[in-house]
Amino acid sequence: MRNGLANVLISQRLFGAPPSKLGGDESHVTLTSSPIYFSAIFGWTMSAVSAVICAVVRMPLGGPHWFVFVKAFLLAAAIISCATLLTVRFVEQRRSGYAPVLLFTLAVIFLPCLAWLIGAATDIVAYPLLLGLVAIGVRQVVAARELPSSHFMLALIGGCASGIGYFFVVNSKGYATVLTPEQAVIGTQHLDTFFHAAIANMLLKYGALSFGLDGLTPIKYHVLSHIWLGCFGIWLRVPTLDAYYIGTQIVAIPVLFFNLALAVHLLRPTKAESFDGAFVTLVPLLLLVTADLWGWTSYLVSESYCLSIILLLLAFPLLAEIAEDDFRLRPGLQIAALVITGILIQLSKVSVGVIFWGATGYLLWRQQGLTLRNLIALALPILLLVAPLAAIFSPDAGSYSRGFSLFRFVVDYPRGAWPNIAANLVLLCAAAKVWLSGSARDRKVAETFVILVIGCLVPALLLDIYDTAYYFVNVGTWGCIVFVSAYGPAILGEQRVRLLTPAIVILAIVLVALATGEKRNSLKKVALQLEDLRTRMRMLNGESAGPNITPWQGLFELVAPGHPARTALATDIKRTPGGQAKQTLLSAGLAQDRYAAVFVPPDNSAFWSTNVDCRGNPFFASAIIGVPLLRGLTPSALKCGLYSPPVYLPDASSAPTTDAQLCSRAAKSNLTTVIVMEAPAIARRIDCPLK
Predict the structure, then answer these.
(1) Between 20 and 30 A from 322 (CA), which of 257, 334, 411, 573?
(2) In this predicted model, what pLDDT tens digit does every residue of 186-210 receive, in sequence order?
């Protein structure tokens, strides 16, 4: 009884749950609406719709089970609920500031990582916490007054439309798609997804940062997104390749859009007139789709970059809080939250982390006083933190010293460069206007965003880092969207901003989306993926070409619940060489064996011709099964390049090898069993003697 009462009191204190009189009439406290409630409804709905579509498409293909998608939605909904409830409780009601919001939300985001440590027991912790957060969050949003029913319906409809629209946009890009399990087996999967799934499998299963292409040869790479999605797969009990499309489409993108609205809401000037949730959610979304009109949309397909932006958006309100006049630099919750978030951002994407720490360091210096002593006192610990992380985890760390190459990124990749440069310049102009007319807090926020722009543009325009420059300069685009949306009334005037009614903003979003070729053609591209899958399957099985179908027929076959065409496709794919190889390796128990490796002789031509792009064949075992190869690079006779950094010995390509040589090679990675795959359906086992 006492424990139950304690739980009720904790819930009320953390989440503002309305109290009730035990043994008497229930006393309800009417809750005032917050602008972030609209964003929460929008995010919940978008995630739910994505989960439903993914489940409908996957069920005839043999899984995952529908409950997997429910669990994924539950995580996304709990993340949004946690941030919503604590924002209202700790920030809007002026209780404890934003740091608790940030730390609790991070804890929920990375809750699946418990599965790496305690396995299935994670559910004992996860289910009560996630269900409780969602239940309390939905109850508080529904009970809130001053949220017009029209806005409630608008958030639902907007979330549905976004869930459907972004399902097709993301899947049309061909990276981690709803058809990835089949595309991986027949060799049409984008190699980038193979690349990252292999890293995640080697990290979580063997504790090694490696691709698993020749034992556990070490590499350098930022690891956080691989750990998060790999743990997400362990928690869902699905292969890592499934976790990549489920985690991105059902969790990451809806949470990204919610965090964008949250950053706009909390970055607004303290004394600014409040705008409704529709403005806070839809205006930044309009600016985002406008940026997508001309630029790249890597945030939809690069899991590491998407996660780093999610964390960066979560951190922006903390920077605004630090910019307040009453801030004091001393050990406490704010500094702890700042350090933890900064480390997580850098582990997710080194470029974003470096930019974040540069802007944060300036803001702290500005607050302490712009003196040389304070600069040294702040710069030294930040450099000691940032530099080792960049050196250890950045795959491009060595390339930053190659020298200057003025505007190479602009010349070689104009479509990736110019839209982002324009957004950075808009941010500079907006920051200048706020600095000239804003309060002391607003001026410091503006200066911080200017430093962020400098951190984005200088590496992108001056360093010889090829397309990696995009992951610097695009951070400024996200900063522009947040800053312009938050300070729109100060920049343009409140009267002009009030002309942006929800109807006008939605109409603009629709028109811009239809004007974007990537979004406009996404339905056709997704339908063609299914047809390409069937064509490739028939070729591998030696069958004649099937009847031609229109894109609309293909789309119907893809999304119609229980359509027999998908069931037949799943059955036929199992007969392909890749399908047989997958089943052979799974039957050998390699998905669970932590001390096994695979060797594929060069004369197993069926295996070495599985992928359309021959560079993807070495990733088959490490990405799909989660087991490393020995001498796993493509046989030299095929003259195929690498889809990975050149970190391998000259003899890493597949070549005739004796059992003793294989065991010697396996021992270097502490592996004791080798499965020799002589043909897709034929494998023999070598038990190496322990040393």
Answers:
(1) 257
(2) 999 999 999 999 999 999 999 999 9
